[in-house]
From TrEMBL:
This is IS1341-type transposase. InterPro entries: Cas12f1-like_TNB (IPR010095). It comes from the Archaea. Pfam families: Cas12f1-like_TNB. GO terms for molecular function: DNA binding. Keywords: DNA-binding.
């Protein structure tokens, strides 16, 4: 099972104070376009709750608004440092993996889930295995 997972930003305009500045955002339209493009493939498109994905440490789970500073993320608890968008992407993957883990169960009661990121794979336990770098 392969797919593309987005944050559900349906209500983003209600949450930001300078919403007029962001009226050009076409999040729903973009997701619909992606859904259309993957229609005849084996891919799926889904969304997850966006709460705290940019403030949560993808290593230890600690949440604090001061952990993210523009493009960098540094956990105030475990000192994990990484690109802020990459950290948020790992949190989105973790959240979706947990959703799948709860929602689809085999006879044994467990669903296997492993999410592929460009830099490696992430499983339902939060274990990350880095992909070897391809040499060009």
């Amino acid at each position: 099972m392969h797919g593309i997972v987005f944050e559900n930003l349906k209500h983003i305009r209600k949450r930001i104070s300078n919403a007029a500045k962001f009226q050009q955002w076409a999040v729903a339209k973009f997701i619909k376009l992606v859904e259309y493009k993957v229609e005849d493939t084996v891919l799926f498109v889904d969304t997850v709750n966006p709460a705290y994905t940019s403030q949560r440490c993808s290593q230890c789970g600690f949440v604090h608004e001061d952990s993210r500073s523009d493009k960098s993320f540094e956990c105030l608890k475990c000192d994990y440092e990484v690109n802020a968008d990459y950290n948020a992407a790992k949190n989105i993957a973790n959240r979706y993996c947990a959703y799948i883990h709860r929602g689809q169960k085999s006879r044994g009661g467990w669903a296997t889930c492993q999410l592929a990121l460009k830099s490696g794979t992430l499983n339902v336990n939060g274990d990350f295995n880095a992909s070897p770098r391809l040499e060009g």
